[in-house]
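Run log, item B.
One chain of 107 residues. Sequence copied directly from the ordering sheet:
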Amino acid sequence: MSRTEFIITTALVLLAAFLVGWFASWLVHRMSRSSNADVGQLDQMADALQEAEETRDQAVTYMNEREEELMGQLSQTETELRAAIEGLQHARHETDELRNYIERANM
């Protein structure tokens, strides 16, 4: 191989390496860049996600408040139920005493 052939071969190999590198760079740039429409869609999705999270937080807060309110009502209802049961027991006891008194008085 002469000196001229060596220089031409080396130049062609370097040119081919440059072209492969340039093509790879172009391909990576083409694949990785996002268009303005894609960025716009991402912004819309981010806004929608933020609104959904705020709505979820409001719903959780409302549910916690509602649960506390219902627990309070349940506690009050249970207290009233106990008082009604005690009153009913007292009335039954009094009714039994009156029945016994009437039976003794009729004899």
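Observations after the first pass:
- The two ends are 146 Å apart (CA to CA).
- The first helix runs from residue 3 to 32.
Flagged for discussion on Thursday.
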